Amino acid sequence: MTPELFFKCIALWWDPSYASWIYFALFLPIVILVYNFTPEKERFRVLLLASWFYFITLSGWLFLIHILEVIWTWQMGLAIQRLSDNKELKRKEKNKRKKKVLAVGILSLIAVLFVLKYLDFTGMNIVKLLTVFHISREWKMLNLAIPLGISYYTLEAISYLTDVYREDIQADPSFSHVALYMGFFPKIVEGPITRYGDDAKALFSGCPITYENLTAGYQRIYLGAFKKLMIADHLAPAVDSVFKWNEKAGSIALFGAVIFTVQEYMDFSGAIDIVIGSAKIFGIDLAENFMQPFFAKNASDFWHRWHITLGTFFRDYIFYPVSVSKPVMKLTKNIKNLFGKTISHFAGPTIAIFCVWISNGLWHGPKWNYIFYGMYYFVLIFIENIVEKPFLSLLEKIHLTEESISVRLFRFIKLTFIVLIGEMFFRAETMEDGFQMFRMIFIKYRPHKLVKHLGSFGLDQFDYWTVTISFIIIVIYGVLKEYKYPLKERFAALPKPVRWAVWYLMIIAVVIFGAYGNGYDKAGMIYAKF
Amino acid sequence: MLKKLNQNNSFNGILFAVIFVIILSILSSLVKPDFGQVYNIVQVNQKLESFSKEKENTIDVIFAGNSEVYSTFSPLQLYLERGISSYCMSESALRLCDALELTKASFNTQNPKVVVLEADAIFSDADPHKDDYALPTNFIEDLFPIFHYHIFYKSFITKKMKEKNQDLKVEHPLRGFIKTDLAVPYTGPADYMNREEQAAIGEDSMRYLERFREFCEEKKVPLVLTAAPNPNSWTWSRHNVLQAYADKYGIPFVDLNLHIEDMGIDWNVDTMDGGNHLSFKGSEKASSFMGAYLSENYKLPNHYGEKAYEDWERDNKEFEVY
Hints:
The complex is a heterodimer of chains A (530) and B (322). Chain A contains 21 helices and no strands. Chain A has 530 residues and is mostly helical. The longest helix of chain A is centred in the first third of the chain and has 42 residues, at 91-132. Chain B is an alpha/beta fold and 322 residues long. Chain B has a single domain (9-318), classed as Rossmann fold, CATH 3.40.50.1110. Chain B is 46% helix and 7% strand. In chain B, strand 4 (223-227), helix 11 and strand 5 (253-255) form a beta-alpha-beta unit. In chain B, helix 2 (41-51) packs parallel to helix 5, helix 4 packs across helix 13 and helix 5 (96-109) packs parallel to helix 10.
């Protein structure tokens, strides 16, 4: 057997992506068993070894980069802690030194992320910019390999160091603890981006496996697998086909925006369900990342419900620090003197929001589409902040409230359109394609083109039906959850044979109608690439 | 086993799993095909359903393989030109394992006198498992075939759906051949076979090729190997590998790529997609060539005008093929 063949065997043998049976029916049960047989105090080591095994099988030697970053974060945390604990230093001097260590710690982590993820993009754009000045240079693409989940664990490391700096938490003297926090296998691929202060206790306590946690965890895993295999992975070939943009019609562009939005939501929130379910089995309650985002009243609220942990990270580690930073405070003061109080109120938050959204766009990856996507939401949320008060006054004048059905319907339609257009630019192959698709929706809608090509997007009638019915089920589930209907309690009150029959039906439905195995190309996890 | 799981909960868990395994086993026995293991059960079922419409013992030649077959050999043309009755047992990207089962099944109702196997399927994935090396997944699929054949339901296409799908609608009348108006020229070099390649027949392909050969020997039906004109993938290396196999067992090998000039193939109009498949015009030339070869080398009856073949002529007129 050649080495090439050997690695091919391993790669195919071992496919632990979250929606693969290898993950939830082989890898996870083995970890659960070993974990439970291990003494309580040592259980976190089982989770750590499982996480490293998982990481190495997916990322190979890039694991070394991860480990180096963990060591760095651990040591920098301890360095900050030592300064905090130093009673000989004066407060001002102590803060100054702590700030310096924090800056070195964070900038080093960002530098690694920048080199691995953004260097080619930056180099290429600098070369393009130089051509404007008639300077001809060539950028040789480095195409560096990126460790699994680097965008997620880098933010976790930043939050850890900042929280130690702020003295919200104590730096952990245990390397294993920091390593597990930054590399816990369920959340390493797609987040959620958690805080050390929230996770630590449960992560390291070695909570025993209980029947309640085991069943609740696997039920949540089922929900995630349902979303991914019944909806997201079915839609994957159609999304790829539409965004190749061979058939230029507005109806097809809008269709593409709709199916990509559905695919992305089901893929990402499905993966997060599997992540949260997996952690739940070990008694760890990870932060939720989604909260029925399409029930949001506006774009700002949408981001309080969509990729929540990324939003709260930006809020706590970019928005607040930027808002109260010296240059911004000074600028606000100057604006107040020049233009008055009302405008100055907007200045600080607007600068901070701009920093948040440029970071959001860049975090997704080195692509102009993502930067545009961030700026798109910056502009929309800025406008929303301005018009919200006049809008509420208008409602009052026409005797409507925010809860009126017509107002909620208007907001739902507006938000849906905003999200769809945003996702269309986000997924478009190039910015030119994005603008062309957007233009076509208004100029050349051509609905007949969509009808004609519906069968040529890689989905047959059965796939469309599977996606539609599954989508309706998830929407109903979301509505019940939003209105806090006690579905779990009602279901638990049913006789056991009925409950079991329902579960068998639901599992068999995924076994039969899921997009996996023969007849389907394996679809990756969308947010794993960020 | 798990410390905090009390006996009752453990029993419940085990019972739930046991019932689930029973359900999987029942479903597996229901969906597992009567014939051997195949890769794409939907394609195989659809082809068998289409083939079942042929009157018994009316097909003399079976063309087996993937899309190269149904775009190259036209049974209606062979019938009109030489009275040869044939059928394209082929589907898009059909694997060799599926082609074998389709060929075997054709002998249940027909009495073929020649089996022609096209080479592209031999140089492609041949195993019923999606990934040959995904051992745990393949093990589970073999244990519970419901996971392997879970798309079985896609075979249950309603009549209305079939009428909407042009390919399915005309598949039977054209005897498996697919007619297309597409023509995208091949613009590469004329001596495409000189392209460098270290071709080899894969382990799985060899296993199924051997089964093909053994099956034909068992049925005492000559097996003919052929390679459709394909400037994008066919090379001397592939030719030599297959020729060596053919020589070893004394199997005739008709490589159409060696007869491009004899057939009069014009790559500007005779390929539908830049060289991967022949266009309708190209298929006319290749079918004529293959018809002449079959007539010269095998005693195939001329069925032209026979009553049992009235529908062949009717279908030709109805679908305005020739």
